[in-house]
Amino acid sequence: MTIGAVVAALKPDFPDVSISKLRFLEAEGLVTPARTGSGSYRSYTTEDLDRLRYVLTAQRDHFWPLKVIREALDALDRGLTPDSDSGPGQGRPRAPRPVPDPDVPTARELTASKPLRLSRTELAESAGLDATTFEALVGFGLLRPDASGHFGEPALTVAHTAAALAAYGIEPRHLRPFRTAADREIGLVQQAATPRRQDPAEVLRLCIALHTALVREGLSED
User: Fold this and answer.
1) C-beta atoms surrounding 48 within 10 Å
2) How far apart are CA 54 and CA 69, in angstroms?
3) Secondary structure of residue 140 in the 3-state scheme
4) From CA 63, how far away is CA 57, in angstroms rounded?
5) What is the pLDDT along the chain (222 residues), one digit of tens a residue?
6) Could you tell me the domains of the chain?
């Protein structure tokens, strides 16, 4: 949009807005429209228009000084969200509530009864694992048979995941830290849940969510 089109779009809600006002806000660093090829004309996006609405609303309804508006815009640029108590898209930015990770199972899913019981041959064939790799997974504690020598539904996921990771050169011996970490998390869950009679599945769900968030944070730092 041209600067004239932006003024026209803002006029119904902000009758006093003008081209000079928009140029002033640009000079103050509150909005930075792109320039056309020659650099002579400003080109505003819909995001620029929303930003201007936020600025003008803050001035009109909240009487915020430019410094406060600038700080609020910086917060918005960093992913914070406007406080809904002050009206749609108008309040001072706050840290958003975390969005539940769809890959983290619910407490119900963690405790759901799974009647599946697989033999070694059935599990290995399902995941496409050769005998050596399968036995290595058992040896490193990643696959644990029950008292009858069968494997349950979680083992199916472990076996298929290990097979997929093998394509990236990740061998069973490289997966030992996952077994160690899982055992530590299980111990922590049992310690936290038993004295207070809390639901261990919910405690475990929170631990998994924490683990996932820490891994995502570590990867983002790279």
Assistant:
1) 19
2) 9
3) coil
4) 9
5) 899 999 999 999 999 999 999 999 999 999 999 988 777 788 999 999 999 999 999 999 889 999 999 999 998 888 888 775 555 456 778 777 777 777 777 767 666 655 788 999 999 999 999 999 999 999 999 999 999 899 988 899 899 999 999 999 999 999 999 999 888 888 888 787 766 666 777 888 888 888 888 888 888 775
6) 3-94 (1.10.1660.10), 107-221 (1.10.1660)
